[in-house]
Design goal:
Elements lengths: L3 H7 L5 E6 L5 E7 L2 H7 L9 H8 L3 E6 L3 H15 L15 E4 L8 E4 L14 E3 L5 H15 L19 H4 L13 H15 L4 H16 L3 H20 L1 E2 L7 E8 L4 E9 L2 E10 L7 H14 L7 E3 L7 H12 L4 E3 L4 H20 L1 H10 L1 H11 L6 E10 L2 E11 L2 E2 L5 E4 L8 H21 L12 E4 L3 H13 L6 E6 L5 E6 L2 E4 L5 H24 L2 H9 L6 H10 L3 H6 L2 H5 L6 H21 L1
Parallel strand pairs: 8-11, 11-12, 13-17, 17-18
Antiparallel strand pairs: 1-2, 1-3, 4-5, 4-6, 7-10, 8-9, 9-10, 13-14, 14-15, 14-16, 18-19, 19-20
């Protein structure tokens, strides 16, 4: 049993990170402290002065834990990592989870490459590794265009072959055939010539286009003189691409430094942070980021949270960062960024001249985005987190963040598959989707198949939690949504009881047209307005669950198997099978079709319609008879 007073007495006067947990063991807040004893105790003092959000967090604290570090810098690094990993509910969090690509030059290799990365991998990264980063590229398409251009001009290799060790072991790849690589894997180009080309490619990425423009112009003219007009047109197109790229990059600084310009605009509850990315004196892109629920938070708190989260996940740290105002933790943040970059990083608050105007321009852009997107943000909030709260209110739950929805797909029992779809904050979290190929059930037993899926899902989840988490299934939902009604809900509750889990399970109540008209929860049918955002969100979750299950099922079945299912339907011959496949995209669509929809197909008479409908709905018909 956690004794708050006793645990507060045990807190050390050392730097570290503290983690607040709720009654469900979820980490709801992560913070750092120079003195854990002083910082954590402040949350539980009667005279505390905190924001409304932190006040709500304090009321939900069931217990806390802490990790002692050797320095405040170590505490900052650990805090950033834990916030990124756990996405705590009450930390000031970026609404967007944007990850911008960079071009990574592996200059330490004998035949270096240009690769795309979204963040630096900590594992396997040695101090001896020599790499250089270019970016960020706010457009993935623009970055790919740059890499393709450099392959055509400087013939950079893209393969993962270990050179020079693997020279001559395999035939050259397609890029050699299309004249975008000179096959160093075969020894067709010397290391000296390859490195000379690579150096020119790096100059290009640094924004020096004059050399390559001159070279391409000369080659275009020379090809024209030889009457090689097709070759000359290729050089012309490359030259045009470079000129377009050059025009997109606006000169914003007389110096040739790498710097990010960061400024913020806010309302009472929302904020937008605007970033200008300047590399070698050129503005290569800009982007904005949203914050929500920031009532009574200070501006420098929001900017501090942004800097920690943004630079914790980007491989490139600029030499200078321009801000509107000083940060409370500015010195320690500069040390952290300097350590990540490997060179001195300065946070600067410009007071006059062009540098101050750049910050003002970023703030102006942030204000415009905030004003322009205010209604859009409100609407988006209603459709996502607002809709989640609507569902929670109908079910009598305090809050819902993560929903898992399940579905079974088969053709009369053929190759049954299960799907698990995840929505967090009202939006699909596709990297958490899971597929299940039914192993223990034969035939069209949807209940048995659902029991297997849920058993496998939560058995894996509990096992991964015991092993420390961070696996495929270790995070459990706040609500399980079943496409069926009472039967499927009871199956889910039985599986949860088997594992000792207490997770709310909600089912669907369908009308005569198989459309959802209400929710089944705690043995009651609850009404939900078809015009509400909660209803629309449930519909989107249902549709996504069906789509994902059907998509997986299609991978497992072939055309012959589909035909064999239709061949089992009485009164349906070859002509009628062709008509069905012509009017419906899949067996699942035929299965979901009403009698009225089937009657619209000229080739089907009344007997065929009844036969098809009964074939695909015999399970439901039998259940109705039993009830």
């Amino acid at each position: 049993m956690f004794n708050l007073d006793e645990e507060l007495k045990k807190l050390p006067s050392k730097p570290g990170v503290y983690l607040m947990h709720d009654k469900n063991d979820q980490i709801i807040y992560v913070g750092k402290a120079i003195s854990l004893k002083n910082r954590v105790r402040q949350y539980f003092q009667q005279s505390r002065k905190v924001t409304p959000k932190i006040e709500r967090m304090i009321k939900n604290i069931a217990y806390f834990e802490y990790i002692v570090t050797d320095s405040e810098l170590e505490a900052l690094v650990l805090e950033c990592n834990l916030i990124k990993e756990h996405n705590p509910k009450y930390n000031t969090m970026l609404k967007d989870d944007k990850a911008y690509p960079f071009i990574k030059a592996t200059i330490g290799e004998m035949y270096p490459r240009l690769l795309t990365v979204h963040q630096m991998k900590k594992s396997g990264r040695k101090k001896s590794d020599k790499v250089k980063y270019f970016g960020p590229y706010t457009s993935v398409g623009a970055m790919k265009d740059v890499l393709e251009l450099l392959r055509k001009i400087y013939f950079m290799r893209t393969c993962n072959r270990n050179l020079p060790k693997d020279i001559g072991k395999e035939r050259p790849c397609l890029y050699y055939q299309i004249k975008q690589c000179k096959a160093p894997c075969q020894g067709y180009i010397s290391e000296e010539e390859y490195r000379e080309n690579f150096s020119k490619a790096l100059e290009f990425l640094d924004g020096n286009y004059a050399g390559v423009e001159k070279m391409l112009t000369e080659k275009m003219q020379e090809a024209s003189e030889r009457l090689a007009f097709e070759e000359a047109m290729e050089y012309r197109d490359l030259l045009q691409s470079i000129k377009q790229m050059s025009e997109k990059q606006k000169i914003t600084s007389y110096g040739m430094e790498d710097r990010d310009i960061i400024a913020m605009a806010r309302t009472k509850e929302d904020a937008v942070v605007q970033v200008f990315f300047i590399r070698n004196g050129r503005m290569i892109g800009r982007e904005h980021f949203y914050f929500e629920d920031i009532e009574k938070e200070e501006n420098n708190e929001i900017i501090t949270a942004f800097i920690k989260q943004f630079y914790a996940g980007t491989p490139f740290i600029p030499k200078e960062i321009f801000l509107q105002e000083h940060l409370e933790e500015q010195e320690i943040i500069e040390k952290w960024l300097t350590e990540k970059r490997g060179q001195k990083v300065s946070i600067i608050i410009p007071q006059k001249g062009q540098k101050e105007r750049l910050v003002e321009l970023a703030q102006t852009n942030a204000s415009m985005v905030l004003q322009k997107d205010k209604d859009k943000m409100k609407r988006d909030k209603e459709r996502t987190t607002g809709a989640m709260q609507e569902i929670a209110n109908i079910l009598g739950l305090s809050k819902i963040y993560r929903v898992e929805s399940y579905d079974i797909s088969n053709i009369s029992g053929f190759q049954s598959v299960g799907s698990m779809v995840v929505f967090e904050g009202g939006k699909p979290k596709k990297n958490n989707y899971r597929k299940f190929k039914i192993k223990s059930i034969e035939g069209a037993d949807d209940y048995g198949s659902m029991r297997e899926v849920l058993t496998r899902r939560f058995a894996h989840g509990l096992r991964e939690q015991e092993e420390g988490g961070s696996g495929k299934f270790d995070r459990f939902p706040d609500l399980i949504l079943m496409d069926g009604g009472k039967g499927q809900v009871n199956i889910a509750l039985e599986v949860l009881e088997q594992f000792g889990l207490d997770i709310p399970v909600c089912g669907m109540v369908k009308d005569n047209h198989h459309r959802t008209r209400g929710l089944y929860f705690h043995n009651q049918e609850l009404e939900i307005s078809s015009r509400s955002e909660g209803f629309h969100l449930i519909t989107r979750i249902q549709d996504e669950t069906h789509r994902f299950a059907i998509e997986y099922h299609r991978l497992l079945r072939g055309k012959n198997q589909v035909h064999s299912v239709l061949e089992d339907i009485p009164n349906v011959g070859e002509k009628r099978r062709k008509a069905l496949l012509h009017n419906f995209q899949s067996i699942e669509e035929i299965k979901a079709a009403s009698k009225e929809e089937l009657k619209k197909i000229p080739e089907l008479n009344q007997a065929a319609v009844e036969s098809i409908y009964q074939f695909f709905h015999r399970e439901l018909i039998e259940k109705d008879k039993d009830s």
